[in-house]
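A quick aside before the break. I want you to see a complete sequence-to-structure record at least once, exactly as it would be stored in a machine-readable document. Don't worry about memorizing anything.
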Amino acid sequence: MNFKWKVLYDLVLKNGYKKALGIGTSKGISAIWIAWALSKTGGKLITIEIDEDRYKKALANFKETGLSEYIDARLADAHELVEKLEGPFDFVFVDADKDWSKNYFTALAPKIVVGGCFTAHNARNTGMKGIKEFLDYVKGLPNFKTTIDTTSSSGISISYKIAED
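That is the input. The structure line, written in tokens, reads:
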């Protein structure tokens, strides 16, 4: 298992988060780390994947780890579903189409509770389309405090909501 995702586990556990959202499930490895922490806080993860093969692999991985009851896995287009999700959320992790990171953030920021956080993978890869724009945007917001965790070479941005808009 890839320990670069331990930062997500630590964030959920340290802050006692219970209402999490993941965008870009892939095979479910990051979701497993998040759900593992949520199993200790009494929370649940909604995770969204658009690719049916990856979604099915993720479901099998969730079952194998015994964490299925903590995960509401959805096969859907996050571009459409994110807008419809009611929230509130205290933890969001995005590892999907990088050029949509800012769009996901702007749709979800109002649904994140004060003290909650929005995290995004590949934060050190500012050459990827959309990453620099996303980071410049969130770092400029007065109601979010953003740092970059460099545990993995690609980096994870962590934006804590410190106040309402």
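Two observations worth writing down. The chain has one domain: 3-95+114-161. The CA atoms of residues 96 and 158 lie 16 Å apart. We'll return to this after the break.
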